[in-house]
Specification:
32% helix; Aminopeptidase; 14 helices; alpha/beta; 535 residues; elongated
């Protein structure tokens, strides 16, 4: 016979059982099976990758090739059967920029071809340009004062030469179980691993705090004006990473039409940069020649995001589930891992969902963002227009209708899990959704925030926004913002796996009885005005 304590505990468990069952997420395994079959046996994701990279890449925001790529994406999404497909303008963004021709070599002490990447939003050379290089690392206003009057007619080397150690570890890496276990652990609230910025801040000097993004931009403007005023022919850098033919390069000037156009800028292969620096150190004369043609002739300062929908067919069809990836890239490679991979996957997701003809209660909306590399500009503009301005937190009528946003932008590695972005209410939901994909290596749930990409624009105004955990591969070591960001660095099976998982997540969200749980609305985040210059 059960004693009173045992009977009480058993009764409590029986009472709680229906609540536990109600709390479990229902996953339609027959739908998951259809999605997986379509994603792996009839995949079109690498066909999309081919066009986005070989044919249409790179896709720096706003120049003609970005617009050509956008037109192609609109045609593809319309061909899948999506509705309301369009290029939704936002802006103004600023200058167009496109490299049309590049040639560089060392003429003295002997001829040698130079591998390089022209820096975005710098001017061309207006024909062939020849000059002597000079090492002048300018990072502060004190540096500008130091070199004032000494740089006219020079090709200025703006980064210190650096040792290139023999690589002792593999460049490409997949997460181990131990690493994923660590990623799943919460970190202290004071830990700030990620920044809402396209690049990390520079440091002032040893012992001083890093510059804020605003301070860095203002200093860059001063340096750009200084180089032009001093009559510098061209600036040349080797970056802070890369070797073995890898050149990391991004912007060298401003896309803001109100700011000075920077003198020609080039990032060159580190090994060649070091050779030039050593020759100068040994007092051996060096002569370099460049011929760079950059086009900044486009006159429309506005740019666009690409959107399209699969209409819902149930009682909640006015509610929206979004997925997206940034469409723009840098100019060095063809924008494969950053971020044609994410764009191709989310395009593949809507193709899969549309082709399987599965009714969904809510509307599914895809977005391919412009301007991510310059600070999440496209997604921020979209969120401000449609949902809320983070500065005031005044909500639009669409804000309560956005169920959630799912983003892919951490290279071409397969999905290993998802970041909760501090929304622990999503944990049991995602755990259930990942169960059918455990055999594909995806089941890690991390409470941590991750940054630097477009889900932040949604999270900033209290909307559920999520970025997936992906295998790092050689994203940071080889491809991110480099000339190696090309089609050949992509693993097709990883993109197929990601397509299957995201398609399942989108379907589950669009057919779930309730909307996804939300964190409390954040407080308004007014923009801090720039300090007035000292008089």
């Amino acid at each position: 016979m059960l004693n009173a304590t045992t009977r009480t505990a058993l009764l409590a468990a029986l009472v709680a059982l229906p609540l536990i069952c109600l709390a479990e997420e229902k996953v339609d395994l027959s739908v998951v099976n259809r999605i997986r079959t379509e994603a792996f046996t009839n995949s079109k994701v690498m066909d999309t990758m081919f066009y986005l990279t070989h044919v249409l890449g790179p896709r720096l925001t706003n120049p003609p090739n970005f617009r050509t790529a956008g037109d192609w994406a609109v045609k593809q999404l319309s061909g899948y059967g999506l509705t309301n497909v369009k290029e939704e303008k936002w802006g103004p963004f600023g200058r167009s920029w496109q490299n049309k021709y590049f040639e560089a070599h060392m003429a003295e002490p002997q001829f040698s071809e130079l591998m390089g990447i022209p820096l975005a939003w710098t001017e061309g050379t207006n024909g062939s340009l020849a000059g002597e290089p000079m090492l002048a690392v300018i990072r502060t206003e004190a540096d500008m004062e130091k070199f004032k009057g000494k740089l006219r007619g020079k090709i200025v080397m703006t980064s210190e030469p650096r040792d290139l150690p023999l690589p002792e570890r593999a460049e490409a890496h997949r997460y181990t179980d131990a690493e994923l276990g660590e990623e799943a652990m919460a970190v202290s609230a004071s830990t700030n691993r990620y920044v809402d910025s396209p690049s990390a801040p520079h440091t002032r000097s040893a012992g001083t705090p890093p510059l804020t993004r605003e301070e860095r931009l203002r200093l860059n403007d001063k340096i750009a004006q200084f180089m032009r005023d001093e009559g510098v022919l061209l600036v040349m850098s080797a970056g802070t990473q890369g070797q073995g033919g890898t050149i990391f390069a991004a912007g060298g000037g401003s896309y803001d039409t109100k700011k000075v156009v920077s003198v020609p800028g080039v990032a060159v292969m580190p090994e060649q940069y070091n050779r030039i620096a050593r020759l100068l150190e040994h007092k051996i004369p060096v002569k370099l020649e460049f011929n760079i043609q950059n086009d900044m002739s486009a006159d429309d300062p506005n740019t666009f995001n690409i959107v399209g929908e699969i209409p819902g067919s149930g009682p909640h069809k006015d509610e929206v589930v979004m997925l997206g990836a940034h469409f723009d890239s840098w100019q060095g490679g063809t924008g494969a891992t950053d971020n044609a991979a994410g764009s191709a996957v989310v395009m593949e997701v809507v193709r899969i969902l549309k082709s399987l003809k599965m009714p969904m209660d809510r509307t599914v909306r895809i977005a391919l963002w412009g301007g991510e590399e310059e600070g999440l500009l496209g997604s921020r503009a979209y969120v401000k227009e449609h949902f809320a301005a983070r500065e005031t937190m005044k909500l639009t009528a669409q804000h309560p209708k956005l169920d959630g946003y799912f983003n892919l932008d951490n290279g071409g590695g397969k999905i290993r899990g998802v970041y909760l972005q501090g929304n622990d209410m999503m944990r049991p939901i995602f755990e259930s959704w990942f169960v059918p994909f455990k055999d594909l290596g995806a089941n890690t749930i991390s409470i941590r925030n991750t940054g630097g990409t477009d889900h932040l624009s949604f999270d900033a105004v209290g909307l559920p926004g999520f970025q997936f955990i992906q295998d790092p591969m050689d994203y940071e070591t080889r491809t991110h913002h480099s000339n190696m960001d090309v089609y050949d660095r992509i693993q097709p099976s990883d993109l197929m796996q990601a397509s299957a998982i995201i398609a399942s997540f989108i379907y589950n969200t669009a057919t779930r009885p309730e909307m996804l749980p939300r964190k409390p609305l954040p407080a308004p985040q007014p923009t801090t005005p720039a300090p007035k210059p000292a008089t």
